[in-house]
Design goal:
The protein is elongated and about 70 Å long. The chain has 3 helices and no strands. It starts with a helix and ends with a helix. Helix content is 77%, strand content 0%.
Amino acid sequence: MSSVWIIGNLLLMEITAGWYPALLEQIPVVLLAAAGMAAAFIYIRHLPLLCGQTFRKEYTNAAN
């Protein structure tokens, strides 16, 4: 699998030599933006749970 990846990259580099280096420079930026968007989505989805009731319902009537 690794050799297929390397051969694919070499072929792509030879075929599209004009814009391939620019693409490789932009990939880390795209990955960072995608990771940030995924983290924000997960955080927003779990925000009601994080802001919800802190005690379990069984413990609210423990004094009775």
